[in-house]
Please model this.
Amino acid sequence: MNKYKTIIGLEIHVELGTKSKMFCQCDADFFDKEPNTNTCPVCLGLPGALPVPNKQAVEWTILIGKALNCTINQNSKFDRKHYFYPDLPKGYQISQYDEPVAVQGRLQLKVKNEKLKTHEKTFRIRRVHLEEDTGKLIHKEKETLVDFNRSGVPLVEIVTEPDFSNSDEVKMFLQELHTIIRYLGVSDADMEKGSMRLEPNISLKLISNSKAQISNNDELPSYKVEVKNINSFNFAKRAIDYEIKRQAELLDKGETPLQETRGFDENKMKTFSQRSKEEAHDYRYFPEPDIPPMKFEQKFLDELKVPELPAGKVKKYVTELGIKESDAFILTRDKKLAEYFEQVSAKCKVQSAKLQFKTKNVNQDISNAIVNKRISTTLSADEFIEQLTHQSRVHTVDDIEMDSLISAVLKDNKDAVDSFKAGKENAVMFLVGQVMKEMKGKADPQAVKKILLEKLTS
Model:
């Protein structure tokens, strides 16, 4: 039994793809622009500048909350979060504290337990709140420069409860969240550009060896370590695995890991200490005096519709279209690919009387062709169907030829047939060999065996 229980919570930051910044009219697209050219008195925090909230950013934050099954607060407000860092021009960040946009959500995923059995697990979302992004520090050999182009870009923070037991669960959750964000169309969630940044909080709790009582209560450890600004699912997994090992070694020596913020070195694949981790009271939160509280009418909230999300599409493809769940999952990872599949499927349904396919489930044929990349998805729907029809006809001709050839092999090898019927099941492999010889190896041995067994047992 593992000596420690791993406890992981997540903080995920997503930059919204609005045209302007959160509280000013500056262009929110700052990537690859000359440093400090995309700024104004508001996002630079100059005296007398007044912030005006971006309505679309608020609406998109509500959509994210809805997609994560959160309760949307009808009363919400902005707060000042004070800390002093070179990338924060005002000396505080406009964020949300006690009245965020959304709270108490959940996301259900299929995960594997220690015995590799798949089961449903619910990961709770504590809150979804809206804030402004900071500037960006650029570290050179002997100096650190600050670029404020990013300062003030709308930033959504998604905070989970500490419901994760290992790095595999974290990676799966992050990938699903990334897909949901893209389906909503609120962000490109491009991690290489920093549009989605991952911050796991990791701690370990000793599990009692006593058979009478296992210390598995809800009490959290007295510390947690946050790894900041990870920009890759794989790096998040590596950072967590490294931290689990590092913290376990400290606990084994009787030491409690420091409550701190750490970075992740992508070259050495290890974390490193940055600074001691703050508590909420250290930030001296108070309501933002320049922005009135927000009150959302129910009609306004009802009008913000969440599109069909990947999990819903998977369920529909499996139950209504008869597609294998593994194929449905792959198809729905990219919204454009899912839309392409649905377009082809709809056209096939309309043209079904004219089309001939090798199976009764045309949708599975389409899915196979897309997932296995047998037909390019750059083709129009009509061109795709034409290619699929051609391939199906070729397969049908091949199947007829193979069926005829197998019948001939059975007729010419009566001794092997009699041996099989007498209970010598290995005789079928001799027959498979004969068929493969006649087909000059251009057949699937498993398919040949299946047809042989059907004919031998009929």
